[in-house]
């Protein structure tokens, strides 16, 4: 990293806070454009556990972006292609089946790629390792941020103590508990769901007991909805639990009983990982302050039903890099456009779609459930409605009618 180390102040053109999938994509896009980048990260994402229940669905629109960065091929080598997904009912079975081949005329990637996000971080980490214009500050965290005039001062805490980074831009991709966002006093408003979510990764093949399921399945039920999701190494099962039930629900016998209720398996399941977490829908009051841009979970968080969190964050990263480059070329409107455009996507699309998915899966009223099922069947049974629906859920067109 260039700059005056003796004074405790170092210089960079862009600082990227956080090296999860969003920060990694932003870093690679900047580096490939010849921009000098300094990454500040605690290293947790880079050393992530592939069994852990983090994002694992890459939509066609995101694969298009990653292909432009020349990492799509490597991701495909470790990923699993899922060209169909299903909406199911616990009692009725398959309600609607969607084949992403309907998007063959719209994208080079008419499918979802199931692949743990840690693979993307590793692939990009390997790519930037030999790039002279990228510096990586490991085991380091942002303490405070100040955006003044035409630069940003970022105070970090690392193995060598406290130091300051001076940069023209800061991209805050440091997650839901973003120190960047909090340091700038940007509100993070929204709501928290009334239950917790349990995610269990199993090493057994669910198709042995549920042979007609797709790689991705959304299963509705008024009392016990769930999601069944295939990844290259595991099947993941997501289901709701009560707020006070975390300790009980994580016990081996209880988890086995819940899994057996979904798909009975003689001898039980081989459980690789389990995790309980609260789920929120929150959006930052603004995505930009001075020369600081927020992206990914630092800017917006949502429930995982639809796989839009990581994908929309990667879209933020590509947009943020385009904004930085445009502004440095003299485009005075680029920064404001990033804030308005990306916040609109988070508010009007990601928040709306993911919450609608939650309502569809957990609906209690019989009339609501019947209406939802009829709507899904109608969409799946009409080619043009299917295409428009998939354009929207794949984020190829976030403005398309649902």
From TrEMBL:
Does Oxidoreductase count among this protein's keywords? yes
Q: Which Gene3D superfamilies match?
A: 3.30.70.2450, FAD/NAD(P)-binding domain (3.50.50.60)
A biological process from GO: 3-(3-hydroxy)phenylpropionate catabolic process
Mind listing the GO molecular function terms for this protein? Answer: 3-(3-hydroxyphenyl)propionate hydroxylase activity; FAD binding
Superkingdom of origin organism: Bacteria
Under InterPro entries, the record lists: FAD-bd, FAD/NAD-bd_sf, PheA/TfdB_FAD_monoxygenase
Outline the extent of the FAD-binding domain. Answer: 12-351
Q: Name one Pfam family in it.
A: FAD_binding_3
KW Metal-binding (keyword) present: no
The record ties this protein, via PANTHER family, to: 3-(3-HYDROXY-PHENYL)PROPIONATE/3-HYDROXYCINNAMIC ACID HYDROXYLASE (PTHR43476), FAD-BINDING MONOOXYGENASE (PTHR43476:SF3)
Q: Which protein are we looking at?
A: FAD-binding domain-containing protein
């Amino acid at each position: 990293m260039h700059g005056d180390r003796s004074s405790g102040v170092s210089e960079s053109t862009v600082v990227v806070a956080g090296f999860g999938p969003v920060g990694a994509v932003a870093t690679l896009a900047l580096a490939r454009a010849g921009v000098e980048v300094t990454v500040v990260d605690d290293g947790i994402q880079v050393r992530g556990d592939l069994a852990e229940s983090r994002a694992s669905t890459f939509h066609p629109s995101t694969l298009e972006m990653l292909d432009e960065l020349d990492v799509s091929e490597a991701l495909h080598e470790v990923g699993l292609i899922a060209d169909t997904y299903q909406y199911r009912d616990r009692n009725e079975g398959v309600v609607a089946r969607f084949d992403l081949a309907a998007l063959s005329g719209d994208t080079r990637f008419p499918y979802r790629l199931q692949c743990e996000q840690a693979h993307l971080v590793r692939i990009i980490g390997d790519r930037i390792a030999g790039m002279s214009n990228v510096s990586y500050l490991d085991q380091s965290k942002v303490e405070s941020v100040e955006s003044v005039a035409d630069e940003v001062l970022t105070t970090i805490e690392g193995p060598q103590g406290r130091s300051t980074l001076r940069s023209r831009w800061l991209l805050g991709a440091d997650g839901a508990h973003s120190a960047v966002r909090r340091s700038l006093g940007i509100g993070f408003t929204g709501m928290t769901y009334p239950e917790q979510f349990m995610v269990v990764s199993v090493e057994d093949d669910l198709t042995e007991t549920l042979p007609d399921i797709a790689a991705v399945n959304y299963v509705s039920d008024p009392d016990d909805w769930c999601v069944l999701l295939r990844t290259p190494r595991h099947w993941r099962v997501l289901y709701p639990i009560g707020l006070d039930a975390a300790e009980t629900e994580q016990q081996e016998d209880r988890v086995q009983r819940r899994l057996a209720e979904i798909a009975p398996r003689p001898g039980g399941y081989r459980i690789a990982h389990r995790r309980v977490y609260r789920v929120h829908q929150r959006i930052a009051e603004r995505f930009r302050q001075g020369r600081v841009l927020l992206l990914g979970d630092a800017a917006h968080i949502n429930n995982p039903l639809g796989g839009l969190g990581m994908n929309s964050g990667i879209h933020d990263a590509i947009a943020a890099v385009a904004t930085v480059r445009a502004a440095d070329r003299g485009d005075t409107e680029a920064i404001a456009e990033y804030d308005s455009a990306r916040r609109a996507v988070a508010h009007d699309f990601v928040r709306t779609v993911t919450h609608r998915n939650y309502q569809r899966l957990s609906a209690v009223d019989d009339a609501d459930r019947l209406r939802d099922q009829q709507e899904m069947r109608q969409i799946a049974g009409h080619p043009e409605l299917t295409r428009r629906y998939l354009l929207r859920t794949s984020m190829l067109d976030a403005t398309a009618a649902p």
